[in-house]
Design a protein that fits this description.
- The complex is a heterodimer of chains A (479) and B (419).
- By secondary structure, chain A is an alpha/beta fold.
- Chain A has two domains: 245 residues, Aspartate Aminotransferase, domain 2 (3-Layer(aba) Sandwich), CATH 3.40.640.10; 114 residues, Aspartate Aminotransferase, domain 1.
- Chain A is 34% helix and 12% strand.
- In chain A, the strands form three sheets. A seven-stranded mixed beta sheet of chain A has the order 1-7-6-5-4-2-3, with helices on both faces. Chain A has a four-stranded antiparallel beta sheet with strand order 10-11-13-12, covered by helices on one side. In chain A, strands 8-9 form a two-stranded antiparallel sheet.
- In chain A, helix 2 crosses helix 10.
- Chain B has 419 residues and is α/β, with parallel strands linked by helices.
- Helix content of chain B is 39%, strand content 15%.
- Chain B contains 13 helices and 15 strands.
- In chain B, strands 2-8-7-6-5-3-4 form a seven-stranded mixed beta sheet, sandwiched between helices. In chain B, strands 11-12-15-14 form a four-stranded antiparallel beta sheet, covered by helices on one side. In chain B, strands 1-13 form a two-stranded parallel sheet.
- In chain B, strand 11 and strand 12 form a beta hairpin.
- Chain B starts with 7 loop residues before the first helix and ends with a helix.
- Classes of the chains: A alpha/beta (479), B alpha/beta (419).
- At the A-B interface, helix 1, helix 2, helix 3, helix 4 and helix 5 of A face helix 1, helix 2, helix 3, helix 4 and helix 5 of B.
């Protein structure tokens, strides 16, 4: 494939009319002196270029995508149509409220549904992704302690948490105390009790955790935290296991973020946009970002009044297009939404049951919506080799080498939208690869053989960085 | 609607293998029960659902738009949304498995290249959430690089961007100040600024550098780059901003597209994903995510940022937009936006408005209105026109793009010149 910049200069004048009488009268020291260095390519070639690129890609629409911790479920098409409706997609964010009642109503109702689902008292839809919700959550915790005249400087985070948790704590100048996992994959409660001190601002628990396990001591962890004046933060990235089954708000969590692009099926877009939303208990609601959507009588408006708000974490009101899709998804399931999580858990336990003898199960107990296998019996780099070989069988690989606490980790999340037939085919492929690893390991080590490119040299990419096209590299190597 | 393919027979077989008699028994083994009833709406068929959603959308009113202020109403060629709707692109995730994600990766590489070519910078990342938090990331980057903790912001920064910057600074225990000295990590200036003014940035860059600080340009209306001097030429070390103008719908404020580009010496401090070119086992060209050791999933508390999910699909929209418009098209967008804004400004000056811009402006400008700005915008609203943002009792921030026809401009003027 060519890069777009390698196309020959073509005629490209059709999208806007040339207007004769347009003249720019700007001082010469502020205007561009050289012509804009981007190519003119005709529309048909642009369309072919990106259509061909799309054919070198894999998405949920093509096949099974069990990328653990990312909840790659099917993204219903109707939600795309909803978000593209003219009234949503062409609405300027600074339109007066009389023009935006539909959007504001949608946002207000979405918050109500999320409150109900999580057992929280209020929500902010502003954060753009889970990591930004975490940042907001830690800022709120700091503001809470500041208003109480306390300075707390530490965050307790189990080693099975997402990497964003410690990264976020560190941005907010909190020191991370890492707690190891016990033999059942829970946060080691003994170590927790030892390390919980008056300096601890919050416990950040991913629940179910990245091992796919629901922490069996959740209520006790919360109880001890609260006795210590510490806040409980739930990384709710794995909420797909819990919808309608249990509510984090009932287990003592004071804050939770949800990833609408995971649990509520908004498409992952090749890496985003997502939407993170943050739910809090009422005593923290005054710290949520402004503006908040409020309802008075039957009118909706944006309220900027909160004096204690930590401020804004982004412009405008959040990734509204994602709010539309998540809202639409919740409406499609409505009162039946529990079925989503029931089937996510069933599919995961079924797969785990079929695979636990071929590989080593990191923790042999019921999993929630995902589970972690170790391929350590097949030696070093085996998880990588298995992942690459799975591509030849038409599957996207699971998450590998994460969580870091399991050697040769394969983290598998099937989601509820996969059929038994698909799961069975996946098991067959993994078992076949396991026997290939014993009988013809070279095939697995050379994989993938069926993808548009072979195994890529990541070391060379970092050693000799080429991170952008330069006019001087025109027509390098084009197959 | 039900998106679960399992039949009764499948469920029975699966439960058998798992060794439980019902799904409820399975989840109850390890998840404490919620015994209440969720107060959610009744499930809807697709037909009902679409009716409900379109009904809500119709409750909004989309008017002729003369508002910018961080969200710009530019023309989006039809091919953009058609290409974005391809499931192989939008239903994938972060390209951790490069061999299966060459489409997304090459598009990111092209996006990084477009941003560098437009801004005159050396290297860009794969995207950030949106402009304001991208600017905050630039501030964090500057503090981390210089080891200093003060941020100077030039007057004229979009007020929401300033608020976001202050929120991030508060969280990270940094200070936004009003003087440049030996504590200053970076000098931030928006260009064109919130009021549309185009500044000569050379002297500010020199001021920043002579204090040992980095210079950051914030760009929120990037179509301006088609006609303005690129920041890389006037000494910017970091350019951060918003790419919504490039083929992304207004969508009530999001999803938009944050971008950040830096000079080479800051590469290792960049937040977020970066895509690089490499070769495969047969020597063919290919693309991978690179420099991942900066990122949270590996580095955890020592990461350069906590960002994970970014705005990849929006970056793709911008890439396709820029490819479709090309040099000719993008230059026309900029020239038309400039021309329409100046046409409207000229006509308003003839009916008693006074331009308040202190510098030349691009496609946004501030006018002092004869009476109350609020009364004026409500009069325009009645004519189906979003007339601008009220900045004060008697001043209005107005924006034009190629979407505002000469007829629209005449209608605007006749609506306000009525009395």
């Amino acid at each position: 494939m060519k890069i777009i910049f390698e196309h020959e200069e073509e005629n490209n004048t059709g999208h806007l009319q040339e207007e004769e009488d347009v003249s720019i009268e700007l001082p010469s020291d502020i205007v561009r002196k050289e012509p804009l260095p981007i190519p003119n390519v005709n529309e048909v070639d642009v369309v072919r270029h990106y259509t061909n690129l799309s054919r070198m890609n894999f998405g949920v629409d093509i096949g099974f995508y069990p990328l653990g911790s990312c909840t790659m479920k099917y993204n219903p098409k109707v939600n795309e149509d909803a978000a593209r409706a003219e009234g949503f997609s062409n609405l300027h964010p600074l339109s007066p409220e009389e023009c935006t009642q539909g959007s504001l109503k949608l946002m207000w109702e979405l918050k109500e549904y999320l409150k109900d689902i999580t057992g929280m008292d209020d929500f902010s839809l502003q954060p753009s992704a889970g990591a930004q919700s975490e940042l907001l959550g830690v800022m709120i915790a700091k503001a809470h302690f500041r208003s109480k005249g306390e300075k707390r400087t530490k965050a307790i985070i189990p080693d099975s948490a997402h990497g964003t948790n410690p990264a976020t704590a560190s941005i907010c100048k909190l020191e991370t105390i890492t707690i190891p996992s016990d033999s059942r994959g829970n946060m080691d409660i003994g170590r927790y009790k030892e390390l919980l001190s008056p300096e601890v601002a919050l416990v950040m628990l991913t629940n179910p955790n990245t091992l796919g396990l629901f922490d069996e001591n959740t209520t006790e962890i919360s109880h001890l935290a609260h006795k210590n004046g510490t806040l409980m933060y739930c990384d709710g990235a794995n909420m797909n296991a819990l919808l309608g089954i249990t509510r984090p708000g009932d287990q003592g969590f004071d804050m939770i973020h949800l990833n609408l692009h995971k649990t509520f099926s908004t498409p992952h877009g090749g890496g985003g946009p997502g939407a993170g939303v943050l739910g809090v208990k009422s005593f923290l609601a005054e710290y949520l970002p402004i503006p908040q959507v409020v309802k008075r009588d039957s009118r909706y408006s944006l309220d900027y009044a909160s004096k204690k708000s930590v401020g804004r974490v982004r412009s405008f009101y959040g990734n509204f297009g994602m709010h539309v899709r998540a809202y639409s998804y919740i409406h499609s399931w409505g009162t039946q939404i529990r079925k989503v999580s029931e089937h996510a858990v069933l599919n995961a336990n079924y797969l785990q049951g079929l695979l636990k003898d071929t590989f080593d199960l990191a923790y042999d107990r019921r999993c929630a919506h995902e589970f972690v296998l170790s391929s350590r019996r097949f030696g070093e780099k085996s998880a990588l080799n298995i992942a690459k070989r799975l591509m030849d069988y038409g599957f996207h690989p699971p998450t590998i080498y994460f969580p870091l606490i399991v050697p040769e980790a394969l983290m598998i999340e099937p989601t509820e939208t996969e059929s038994k037939e698909t799961l069975d085919r996946f098991v067959l492929a993994l078992k076949k690869i396991a026997s290939e690893l014993k009988e013809h390991p070279e095939i697995v080590k050379q994989a993938p053989l069926s993808t548009p490119v072979g195994r890529l040299d990541e070391v060379a990419a970092a050693r000799r960085p080429n991170l952008r096209w330069r006019p001087s590299q025109r027509q390098t190597k084009v197959e | 609607m039900d998106y679960i393919p399992a039949t009764e027979k499948d469920i029975k077989e699966m439960l058998n293998l798992v060794g439980v008699s019902s799904i409820n028994d399975l989840v109850r083994e390890f998840i404490p029960a919620f015994r209440g009833k969720l107060n959610l709406p009744q499930p809807k068929s697709e037909l009902e659902l679409l009716g409900h959603m379109k009904g809500l959308a119709h409750t909004n009113k989309v008017l002729r738009c003369f508002i910018g202020a961080g969200a710009y109403n530019h023309y989006i060629p039809s091919a953009v949304s058609h290409l974005l709707a391809r499931g192989d692109l939008y239903t994938g995730y972060t390209p951790y498995q490069a061999e299966m994600s060459q489409g997304t990766l090459q598009a990111i590489y092209e996006f990084q290249s477009f941003i560098c070519l437009l801004t005159g910078m050396d290297v860009a990342n794969a995207s950030l959430y949106e402009g304001a938090s991208a600017l905050a990331e630039a501030a964090l980057l500057s503090c981390s690089y210089t080891g200093r903790d003060h941020i100077f912001v030039k007057e004229g920064l979009h007020p929401q961007y300033l608020e976001v910057l202050q929120t991030y600074c508060e969280g990270s225990e940094l200070t936004v100040t009003d003087k440049i000295d030996d504590k200053t990590a970076c000098v931030i200036a928006q260009n064109p600024d919130f009021y549309g003014n185009i500044e000569n940035m050379h002297y500010l860059a020199e001021q920043a550098h002579s204090a040992g600080a980095l210079f950051t340009t914030c760009i929120i209306e990037p179509t301006s780059l088609a006609i303005l001097e690129p920041p890389g030429k006037y000494g910017a070390d970091i350019v951060a901003g918003e790419g919504q103008s490039f083929g992304i719908p207004l969508s009530f404020g999001g999803p938009y597209l944050g971008f950040i580009a830096v000079k080479d010496f800051l590469l290792k401090k960049l937040p977020g994903r970066i895509c690089g070119m490499t070769t495969d086992s047969k020597g063919n060209r290919g693309f991978v995510l690179t420099f991942q050791a900066r990122e949270q999933h590996i580095r955890r508390e020592r990461a350069t940022s906590n960002i994970t999910t970014n705005q990849a699909l929006m970056a793709l929209a911008a890439t396709i937009y820029l490819a479709l418009m090309g040099r000719t098209g993008l230059t026309r967008v900029a020239k038309l936006s400039y021309a329409r804004a100046h046409l409207l400004n000229g006509k308003l000056e003839k009916v008693g408005f006074r331009n308040l811009n202190i510098k030349p402006f691009y496609n946004e400008f501030v006018v002092k209105v004869p009476g109350s700005a609020e009364a004026l915008t409500s009069r325009l609203l009645k004519k189906g026109i979003l007339g601008g943002v009220n900045l004060a009792e008697d001043s209005l921030l107005i924006c034009c793009t190629e979407m505002n026809s000469v007829q629209d401009i005449d209608d605007f003027v006749s609506a306000v010149a009525g009395d």
